[in-house]
Amino acid sequence: MTPRQQALLDSWLPGASVVQDHSWSELGLRAVLEVEHEGKRFVVKAGGPDDGHMAREIRAHREWLGPWTSRGRAPSLVDADVEARLLLTRHLPGRLVEGTPYADEPAAFRQAGVLLALLHHQPGVVDDDYERREVDRARAWLGRPHRIDPAVETRLHEVIDSWDTSVSTRLVPTHGDWQPRNWLVEDDGTVSIIDFGRADLRPAATDLVRLAAQDFRRAPALEDAFLGGYGDDPRSPASWHRMRVREAIGTAVWAFQVGDEGFEQQGLRMIAEALVDCP
Fold first, then answer.
1. How confident is the model over 25-78, as pLDDT tens digits?
2. Domains detected in the chain
3. Where are the alpha helices (DSSP H) in the chain?
């Protein structure tokens, strides 16, 4: 933590003591500390100078998480400072669903569907420029170093060039990284949600892309349970295919840049599968 961040924390929670360090050391972008103050637990997130997600996380806490925090299903905001990249929330009990038996439990996915619907069913906006921006982002990803086969890259450009970018798109609050590694489960099976650094206004279906590439693919029963909780299926064929292609490209290129070969292979597989399904 920087001196400014430490001073702010001291003003918010004088004399707070660190209970556990939850920082992701391999990324090094922020400190995530579980602290105790006057017998209560809190979580402090302190972003570094390259942390581009803190502003989005703070916005999510301030504007969009009410349907969850009112039910105790997301950490409630205590204080935040965007310029200092510092966020303080109440600690939420539970353990990550990922890596536990709950990751294969339809009941957990049904709860996740119910919770996601609460987020998505808040007021949104209609954006006439969303598809153009997303096309530009996909092209920018392909312009970075990667190991996508040249013939496949050529085909991706052809597919992207065929998209109609003049359509209007409805955007709603989305989590941006909706998968079991960002769900908590308590001993009684109650699921809650954490980590909002990728939250933004997007089409609702974008929150299903990572589930479809991983969990739904290995266990269709989880998809059925999730959609049963959500209430309907927000995916329409044409827009869903565009989302899949863009997510696949971003996954393969980003993973190569950070040296995550396993995730890169997943991205390459996602590209292959999306291209097979091209209309």
1. 545 578 999 999 999 999 999 998 888 899 999 999 999 999 999 999 999 999
2. 3-92 (3.30.200.20), 96-276 (3.90.1200.10)
3. 3-12, 54-63, 66-69, 106-120, 130-142, 150-161, 209-213, 215-218, 220-230, 237-258, 261-276
